[in-house]
Amino acid sequence: MSAIDDRERLIVALDVPSAQQARALAGRLGEAVRFYKIGLELFSAGGYFELSAWLGARGARVFADLKLYDIPETVRRAVANLRASGAHFLTVHAERSIMEAAAREKGELKILAVTVLTSFDARSIADMGFAGSVQDLVLKRARAALESGCDGVIASGLEAPAIRAAFGDRLLVVVPGVRPAGAGAQDQKRVVDVAQAFANGADYIVVGRPIRDAADPRAAAQALQDTIASTRRR
């Protein structure tokens, strides 16, 4: 894996209703943020690709969090289209044939496999018919992601140490559901704070509401950047 600029390890989720609001939030964040996630909410609002291009023109990286899940040929063709969008990351669900199809068409785009959503817990996966622990399922899907040609995985910080132990640096580990120390979990069930995420092996963290809903989003983002910098120096 190539070296990562520490200032790009914070990915801010632009989870807002419109591209106009996303641009306004990115404008407020300024140089405090260099990497943005744009997901399904904005994809359904219109102006998604224009927003992606606008972010890229400002020098930011873009994470297209679309969690593709369809028949392999449809996924393959979608990835072939998306690789020209300028996005750096794209998510797909961690089903082997889907991951293989995405990997065949990725070009310079990095494919991240979603292992188990951070809003799920042991009861959630049991309800879906999976036996064993959440960590067992995450590791199974991470192995399939590596074997399928994916570049990394989306996983909670709680499973990051096991992923690192099993696969070393062969997979990027992107950790969502991150909360500043002392913040509430909201609808997330498997959360860590910033320092714990990186201590556990995260390459990147994704943070949304704690920045978006802060009285001063730029200050909130900068505080997280400072925490990342101090954590990485240890």
Write a structural description.
- The chain has one domain (6-233): TIM Barrel (Alpha-Beta Barrel), CATH 3.20.20.
- Helix content is 43%, strand content 16%.
- It is built from 11 helices and 8 strands.
- An 8-stranded parallel β-barrel has the order 1-2-3-4-5-6-7-8, surrounded by 6 helices.
- Helix 1 (19-29) runs parallel beside helix 3 (48-57) and helix 4 (72-82) runs parallel beside helix 5 (96-104).
What proportion of the residues is helical, as a percent range? Answer: 40-55%
CATH architecture designation: Alpha-Beta Barrel
**Range of strand content:** 15-25%
Corresponding CATH superfamily: Aldolase class I
Unreliable residue stretches? none
Strand order of the largest sheet: 1-2-3-4-5-6-7-8
Give the strand tally: 8
Count of runs of 4 or more consecutive helical residues: 11
For the termini, the CA-CA separation is: 21 Å
Cα-based radius of gyration, to the nearest Å: 17 Å
Which fold does the CATH topology refer to? TIM Barrel
The dominant shape is globular
String of helices and strands: EHEHHEHEHEHHEHEHEHH
Mean pLDDT: 92
In the CATH scheme, the class would be Alpha Beta
Protein structure class? alpha/beta
Layout of secondary structure:
Elements lengths: L9 E4 L5 H11 L5 E4 L1 H4 L4 H10 L3 E8 L3 H11 L6 E5 L2 H9 L5 E5 L7 H6 L6 H15 L3 E3 L5 H8 L4 E4 L18 H6 L4 E4 L1 H4 L4 H17 L1
Parallel strand pairs: 1-2, 1-8, 2-3, 3-4, 4-5, 5-6, 6-7, 7-8
